[in-house]
Inverse folding.
């Protein structure tokens, strides 16, 4: 059996405390730098970011900034925000619905496009409920779907 004297135990506890503090300071610095970047980008730091622990702030902001706010992605801002609105409508999340509606409008979405995005979310939810609840065979569904698209392609040629 290993025996430790009081000094060794105290030293181990002190070392552990120092190790625990060092990363926290790095996380605090990273969060502080991230809050400055959010402020510079958005003009303020919305409270939603302050709900995160310091260790998560940089990653959350990087995700939003590199995809949602990035104009150089495969999808344009309007499309991304309409998708966000459609998903938010299905979750449902009143915060996300408000945010993505305003962001879609800011990105040029019309009221008709907003209505259509929400309607598409409803249609997908409806048929998902029907297909899942009825336990439609997935392999058969895929085969029939492929046949429909093959026929559509043939007609368009």
């Amino acid at each position: 059996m290993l025996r430790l004297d009081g000094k060794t135990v105290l030293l181990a506890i002190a070392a552990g405390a120092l190790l625990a503090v060092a990363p926290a300071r790095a996380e605090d610095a990273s969060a502080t730098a991230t809050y400055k970047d959010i402020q510079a980008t958005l003009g303020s730091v919305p409270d939603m970011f302050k709900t995160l622990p310091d260790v998560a702030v940089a990653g959350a902001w990087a995700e939003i900034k590199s995809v949602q706010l990035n104009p150089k992605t495969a999808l344009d801002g309007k499309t991304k925000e309409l998708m966000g609105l459609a998903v938010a409508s299905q979750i449902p999340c009143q915060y996300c619905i408000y945010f993505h509606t305003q962001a879609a409008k800011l990105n040029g979405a019309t009221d008709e496009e907003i209505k259509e995005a929400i309607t598409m979310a409803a249609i997908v939810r409806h048929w998902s409920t029907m297909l899942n609840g009825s336990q439609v065979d997935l392999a058969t569904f895929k085969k029939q779907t492929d046949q429909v698209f093959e026929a559509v392609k043939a007609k368009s040629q």
Notes: The chain has two domains: 1-70, 75-157. The longest helix spans residues 6-42. Residues 10 and 16 are 10 Å apart (CA to CA).
